[in-house]
Amino acid sequence: MHRTKRTALFAALIFLLASCAPPSKALAPLQAGFRYSSYGPPYNPGPEYWANTGEKMAAKFKDATPSALWIVGIINDDGVYLNFDCEAKDPKIRCGFADLNEKTLTLFDEKGYEVWLQVEPGNANMDELIEIVLNKYKHHPSVVGFGLDVEWYKSTNGPEGQPITDEEAKRWVAAIRKINPNYYLFLKHWDAEWMPPTYRDGLVFIDDSQQFESFDQLVDEFAAWGKKFEPAPVGFQYGYPADKKWWSKLQDPPAEIGQAILDRAPNTIGLFWVDFTLFDIFPPQ
Fold first, then answer.
1. pLDDT band with cut points at 50, 70 and 90 for residue 13
2. Which pTM was predicted?
3. Which of the listed CATH numbers 3.40.50.720, 3.20.20.80, 3.40.50.150, 3.20.20.30 matches domain 27-280?
4. For site-directed labelling of 193, which of 112, 221, 236, 242 has its Cα 20 to 30 A away?
């Protein structure tokens, strides 16, 4: 081959490789932990409690990685309040005065966690929220992505939300990957119809249904969620007070419910006990 042609071909190949986004790093095969919010538990026992609790939950499942759905933004009027200091252009994004996450995230890093940073956005600008949250905490190796509670997406009068379109999901995944190509996006709701119809790349689908009449009803519904989205990864949030009438009778509620879910929904990668009853299962010392 002529030298100039070979040089041109090599340069074209380098350009092509440079322009291709690197493949996303896979999540752990199974994450097990808890969901945290500022309003869920009676009080905040501190970083050590959260770090230890995720490890205890993960220990209930073979080869599970400790994990947390860590809520950094809660619904506030028609927007969102972020529990750390920041600056925002959107007036519907309110910033805190002190960082309430850094110490705990640092412990999560040390303990090998995989952590999701979640928001309840209301009518706040999602693109700006993604940028603010992930740029704030992207230095933490424990952070694996961003989470949206769809119940509070463009919904301020009650937890119902607005269905997510394929176009929205694709745009948000692209925004997340712009910050870190290994990040994922989770979308959470109890109704599968609120999820994007066909878009699946870079997404994890989390079901947070509650008010089940029995153990079997929960497992049947969660199995249907897994089937709906397979082979995409799914996760489940369970342990609500509304279901305590039956799960409190189990010998080990997180383990027994979680294992039943895994048996019926093999594409499950996340099992999360809710913070509303976390102290019942893992009492602070």
1. very low
2. 0.90
3. 3.20.20.80
4. 242
